[in-house]
């Protein structure tokens, strides 16, 4: 293929998702809420194990932690300006304080990766500590960047 055409096509392919999010704020907000819910469906069952409501099984727990690592990366690209609509509780500060918001995301990613590493090692006491650290990153970000329930 002609080099220029191939370059144009690659740029178009990269830009397409961003354009579609900008074009459909409601769909983007919905996708973002869904991404957080998907994350919770792994995070909460892990919490019941950490709180000793369910037995700790090393391999199953490590697998959940790996899934969570992947899911934890999904919501952030969906915070596109102009998409605080519908069920979204996203505060305007997300876009007016991008550095602080980015810092919260990074703290969460570090914490989820640490939990996954700990789950791999299999020391439940350490897992419990890493899980608590991760839960604190949820709360920290919500305190600054999520509006109260309407
Ligand atoms: C949850 C949930 C959150 C976080 C946070 C942890 O299960 O829905 O938003 O954990 O409460 O502090």
UniProtKB/TrEMBL annotation:
One function term, GO molecular function aspect: heme binding
InterPro entries per UniProt: Cyt_c/b562, Cyt_c_II, Cyt_c_prime
GO cellular-component term (any): periplasmic space
Record-level GO BP terms: electron transport chain
The entry's keywords: Electron transport, Heme, Iron, Metal-binding, Signal, Transport
Signal peptide start and end residues: 1-22
SUPFAM superfamilies linked: Cytochromes
Post-translational events: Binds 1 heme group per subunit.
One Pfam family, short name: Cytochrom_C_2
Record-listed heme c binding positions: 138, 141-142
Identification of the protein by name: Cytochrome c556
